[in-house]
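Practice problem 4.
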């Protein structure tokens, strides 16, 4: 069982009160005055713990329902992933009206359908399938952004104690295990951000994307490139066309070429997130067409729509200026605010979701 023993340094206990770093206000989903994980995860669990008996006492859905603002934004029934069973003429017509990442305007129908056709199994419609049986009743997820706040954080064990760990882009692990952990269940990216991360952070240790048997990849469809790479990865062939022509997907994702290894975010889900949670003023500027939520934001919001409890590590906080852009930099670099993302808006969202007890944001 991966359930931490009561009183151990599970993320659900040590981050509360007893933590050495700025305790701050308690997240609303933790019962006050409780000092052990028992209060959080339910009845006393033996170390050999049968997960089956454990329930989620404080699912984030409860705090969403109780919140006057967020209950109007979240729709936990919105499909998160796109797979072949969802493809219809109606979907084609509707998504053809929107540019990527929100749709397929200007993209070849053949390129889209030849990719989606491969996503025809149950593992393509759901994030949590397959290897983990029985499915935990309370799915606890950590989403690990790459923010400098993680440098020296010693949060690795807490991160790894979650059922699933999401990482993204230049997620350097080697050499930073104590701070960021080692477990990766999902790696999220666009082909553009993945390849840029390999180029930009190679000398800082990001020499390959995380790989592993229990690891799944979440493609963000920001361009036709993503569909073409996804198809090639599933088929185990070189990329046949476009800017990535000749790329060997297995050099990125490892030798296992199968549809169950790869997930695709639904363009409608990205629209829904942008519209409801991250509707930036940048949309009305010259950069409007470039704007989209950051990869980290998309992964954190994906987790919020699929997990029962979510902890966010390495995401932007109010005091971001104290930390380097990324945890793996050797010399402190200020955080860069690119025109295609709205990190201020994202920072406000994480702060408000934390206050509402819908997620727990690592801060120091
Ligand atoms: C939530 O999303 C589902 C699936 O897209 C939709 O059928 C439903 O009407 C939505 N609910 C609300 C309240 O918008
Ligand atoms: C997808 O799966 C369904 C149900 O198993 C099957 O009827 C259909 O032929 C499959 N489609 C493709 C394109 O493989
Ligand atoms: C963009 O401008 C339009 C028209 O002025 C306005 O209605 C809309 O609210 C603006 N959107 C954002 C996100 O600021
Ligand atoms: C990382 O943290 C150490 C101390 O914990 C500090 O000396 C170093 O400057 C930090 N690195 C960056 C890039 O901020």
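Answer key:
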């Amino acid at each position: 069982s991966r359930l931490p023993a009561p009183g151990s340094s599970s993320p659900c206990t040590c981050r509360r009160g007893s933590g050495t770093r700025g305790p701050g206000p308690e997240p609303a989903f933790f019962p006050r005055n409780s000092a052990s994980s028992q209060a959080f995860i339910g009845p006393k669990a033996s170390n050999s713990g049968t997960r089956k008996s454990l329930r989620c006492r404080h699912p984030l859905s409860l705090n969403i329902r109780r919140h006057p603002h967020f209950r109007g934004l979240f729709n936990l029934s919105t499909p998160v992933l796109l797979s072949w069973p969802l493809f219809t003429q109606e979907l084609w017509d509707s998504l053809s009206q929107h540019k990527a990442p929100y749709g397929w305007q200007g993209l070849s129908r053949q390129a889209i359908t030849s990719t989606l056709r491969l996503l025809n199994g149950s593992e393509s419609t759901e994030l949590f399938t397959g290897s983990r049986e029985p499915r935990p009743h309370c799915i606890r997820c950590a989403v690990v952004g790459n923010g400098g706040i993680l440098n020296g954080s010693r949060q690795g064990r807490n991160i790894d104690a979650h059922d699933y760990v999401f990482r993204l882009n230049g997620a350097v692990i080697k050499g930073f295990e104590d701070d960021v952990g080692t477990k990766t269940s999902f790696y999220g990216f666009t082909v553009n951000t993945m390849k840029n991360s390999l180029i930009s952070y190679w000398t800082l240790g990001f020499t390959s994307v995380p790989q592993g048997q229990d690891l799944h990849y979440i493609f963000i469809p920001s361009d036709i490139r993503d569909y073409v790479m996804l198809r090639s990865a599933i088929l185990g062939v070189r990329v046949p066309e476009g800017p990535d022509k000749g790329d060997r997907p297995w050099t990125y994702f490892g030798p296992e070429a199968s549809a169950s290894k790869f997930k695709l975010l639904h363009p409608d889900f990205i629209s829904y997130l942008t519209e409801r949670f991250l509707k930036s003023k940048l949309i009305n500027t010259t950069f409007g067409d470039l704007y989209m939520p950051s990869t980290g934001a998309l992964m954190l919001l994906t987790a919020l729509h699929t997990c029962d409890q979510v902890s966010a590590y390495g995401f932007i906080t109010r005091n971001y200026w104290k930390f380097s852009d990324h945890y793996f930099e050797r010399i402190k670099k200020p955080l860069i605010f690119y025109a295609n993302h709205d990190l201020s808006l994202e920072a406000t969202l994480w702060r408000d979701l934390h206050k509402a007890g819908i997620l727990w944001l690592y801060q120091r």
